[in-house]
């Protein structure tokens, strides 16, 4: 019999039970549901709404149910609509009618909101720890490759030489923003909604602050209507998760390109690649490709929830049941991708010679030559034009800028002197860019030092 059956004359259709049930996916909330119920029943006893003896019976019953579920010995009834109903029905079966007092002064509406907030707080903490691990691997790779030069690209064309370490640290700071977004989202998720009832609060003299303290919430929600219908915190999480996947997808694209035969900048570990069923020479970057592909799942989870929420009137509507599958999928996908990514990056073999050889091509030091002429007094636009003509000349002759003799250089501008020859090397080009945040070795070392301090602060936050 349904716990809400009193108003109805007919039993619920089996089709309706199957269609409306969320037990298959929300059962993963069982620990949070029981933890929330434990805090709620303690509060009921503290406020003399139920007796201490009744509270003790309920708590013992809930503890037994928790142990049964943990031991995979709990009999989930498909007729139960959700995990909340499953646990309450089991409690009443176990300890009798006193179990029905557990639901005093609460509704499934504020109960669900509580469980999801507790779940998401923990999930975000797990994801933030995974971000820290990936950031640590990036720092390690950067420190181990401080002298490796690669071609920096814009429009996927050779632009200017940069240190590989500088390139890798760009992803560290992307992940740092991801960490901060989760930190902000976690603050807004950390609001205790229980006590809001179905939508209007309760007539019982409850102590919501006691429950918040018991459950580790820093604050209590202010408006009961908003409390039961708010899913902004899930939207925020899925938006943050989507950006994490954007960053992982961008890095995946680069690893895929860098490991190709044409680039050959890196080799991914055998244990993080796969072969072909027909072509014996193949070594496929499947992990990176799957991460790139899974970004679409998380984007879809975000759009799913936004679409669900966009037309809902206050307060609770059953549409909100659709929040959980999107949330669970988004959290699971991000965790899986971050977890495997840190391990995969640790398997990479860098090929410095190939990177350096590529950096020597494509006239990457052309801007340095233009800057040289500008330092000599030529307006930059004129310098730009002059060096453009030099590049055209080199292409025609199939030579590089570094192969030009001083006599040839002076044909383009009398301002060229012997000292320009040293500026044409990629090492000099990199070393001269020592502005804060630039790609010189000294700047990148400072960048890494800043990153290491950020990492320590992140660990302190999560401790």
Major sheet size, sense and barrel closure: 2 strands, antiparallel
Q: Rg to the nearest angstrom? A: 30 Å
> What's the total count of β strands?
6
Kindly state the mean pLDDT as a whole number?
Answer: 95
> Could you say which overall geometry the principal axes of the C-alpha atoms support?
elongated
Q: Strands of the largest sheet, in order across it?
A: 1-2
Structural class: mainly alpha
What's the helix and strand layout?
Blueprint lengths: L13 H7 L2 H4 L3 H17 L5 H19 L12 H13 L12 H37 L4 E6 L2 E7 H26 L1 E2 L15 H8 L3 E2 L3 H6 L2 H27 L7 E2 L18 H24 L13 H23 L3 E2 L1 H8 L6 H10 L4 H18 L8 H7 L7 H4 L2 H7 L8 H22 L1
Parallel strand pairs: 3-4
Antiparallel strand pairs: 1-2, 5-6
Can you give a write-up of this model?
The chain is built from 19 helices and six strands. The mean pLDDT is 95. It has a two-stranded antiparallel sheet with strand order 1-2. The chain has a two-stranded parallel sheet with strand order 3-4. It has a two-stranded antiparallel sheet with strand order 5-6. The protein is elongated and about 100 Å long. The longest helix is centred in the first third of the chain and has 37 residues, at 108-144. By secondary structure, the chain is mainly α.
